[in-house]
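Dear colleague,

Thank you for sharing your sequence with our group. We've completed the structure prediction you requested, and as agreed, I am returning the results in plain text so they can be pasted directly into your records. Please verify that the sequence below matches your submission; if there's any discrepancy, let me know and we will rerun it promptly.
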Amino acid sequence: MHIRLQPEKKTKKLDNLFGLFFEDLNHAADGGLYAEMIRNRDFEFDPADRPGYTPLTGWCTVGYADVTVESKDPPFPNNPHYAVVSARPGDSLCALGYGEGIPARKGKACRLVIWGRSRCSMPLRVRLCGAEAAITLTDSWARYEAELIPQYSDDHARLFITALVRGEFQLAWVSLMPADTWQGQANMMRRDIAQALHDMKPRFLRFPGGCLTHDGELDPDARDGIYNWKRTLGPVENRPARRNNWGYHQTMGLGFYEYFLLCEDLDCEPLPVVNGGLDPHHLRFAEGELLQQYVQDAVDLIEFAKGSPDTKWGRVRAEMGHPAPFRLRYLAVGNEEIHERFHQHMALFARALREKDPTVELIGSAGPFCHGGPYDMGWRYAREQKLEYVDEHYYLAPEWFLANADHYADYPADGPKVFLGEYATWGNMMENALAEAAYMTGLHNAPAVALACYAPMLCHVHYINWKPDMLWFDNARLMKTPNYHVQSMFMRHQGDHAIGMEVSGNHPGPSLSRPITGAISLQADDTVLRLSGIRLTADGKTVSLPDCAISGKDALQLGRHNGDFRLEMTLERVSGRKGALIYFGRQDDGNFYQWTVGGWQNSDSAIESTVRGRNTCLTQSNLSLEDGHAYRLTLEVKGRLITAHVDGTEWNRVEEQPLRLRPLYLAASTEDGTGDIILKAVNVQAEPVTAQLEISCSGYDTEVLCAPPDAVNSLDDPDNVAPVMHSYGGGSEITHTFPCYSVTVMRFHP
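Please find the predicted structure tokens below.
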């Protein structure tokens, strides 16, 4: 292979291409990046957050202490609950912490903050792993602080608050933070996690979520309401808690002010996401004055970030400790919305936001799929409304990423740019990281792609809502996945301008995709279905099947196909929550295709493939089945072209790209500050690749991530897969061998 780098041929300004995405799922904030070690520090846990939660979740008693919870005359009106403890000498209230307990380290100081009172001047002793502090509560609510330095280490420690005399005391707030938070900031970030993010040198940070931003009641002040950035401001003790839509309690200790501060510390652009006036999970849509309130909240966010201290929201920021404005270049409205009502709302948002600040670049949504009707609708409205970016999300099998490495090559460079706001392959093995790296070379090269971030970012091993994830941790340890290392390599070595290359000998190999052949069946999806007029044309024969009814998760075998086929039937949903799953090309339980009819919340019609147990949604459109309506369904496969019709109308159409691997996936750039020329090369195959590189340099360095496809990192072995650095002399032509299963970054110095 021969590669001639062309630094004189700049093809694309890379700007802020690769960044990070943060969402509080998997306890990414509480119990994670947010350094608080006390779970339920304010006694505000509630069954609304999760069935079984109570205001005393995360707490227990030792001895004969009796604990109740009250809310009369609280110190913090937005968090009114407090514990009332009746105790004898030696009785204790005990904080259990997150996961397996509080991670205490010998000699590592912790900051304790208690808000409490007692009408009998109550002396208390607070203990943590041999460290003690004495506190005497008075008859008025007051704040007490102490430093605890554990005398021994324990990953499963408990905090004991012990009565020294008989009596009653009340606690509204118990907080324990490590003294060595990242950059020494009180009430902020866990050091190892924040440092890992800082080391990546991201260009932007998207926050506060994902689905976190658009699930809940439309009343922004409701406990179960949609995420409201204004309720995350002010003293942390008085920030109203909310139900996290991932099934737990969210303290809001990390609020919008802290997110903006984090972006400053990471030296990256903030990319906040605001709700577009709807909850698509429950089909709630704001109208009239309520919709205008959502629009005004978005407008006010610009003022909070950039307004002078003389403005209403700029003054709030200044009073919190930051009189200077924050950076705010990007603002996203909505997350994965696939409803036309959202795009109608977006027109109102765009008009108001541009009137407030025309320099802010707006981001719309194309939904959670890479192809289909709602996806096309999102792009159409973005062009009509002249949005700067369109947010795309998808989680797919590594085979799709490799087969579609040039997915965006033909997207037009003018008009809205692509913001790939969430993407990942299904897994944290080296195989997944290699597929993502290969795909990232395409993101680097495509003129239409402007922003991209892997998701999700963080996962506490004791609170898993979603996987894969980039960084895994428990209370004391952190593990960087191979996916993390790929993202870090692409960020730290992004460069400022993409450049051209002349490459010979890098042709794709033969297709590795199997033909779409196998068994055909239909399964009810939590429904009662009547089926009639079933006809299968395959292998030159047409077979009619008898009418029937199935229910629950019952399955009906329809036949096999060894090539192209056509399936027709009439389907009537008698009752149920969803619809039907029509399987085809089924080889075994881990390899098949399916047409999902009335999927998710009875809202999808999707063509999906599963390869080695990993799912890919190839295309999606909206479809909701009505009870009692007879739908005429037609599914047809010709080669790799799959089409689905409903009542004679084409509903889904997609041609699956075959998997043809290249010897190398390549991207090159220049870096203004150093003058370096950077080459990224990904080898996803089992044989090394040797290339002649035509480039003049004084010397070059490489960073190489190389491991077998099934290699993983773990908390017990976090560096099993990690990059290795090398340095070499220069010249005008260099011969370099790229190892099998590797990601290589080469920096050529002038």
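Summary note from our side: DSSP finds nine helices and 47 strands in the chain.

Kind regards,
the structure core
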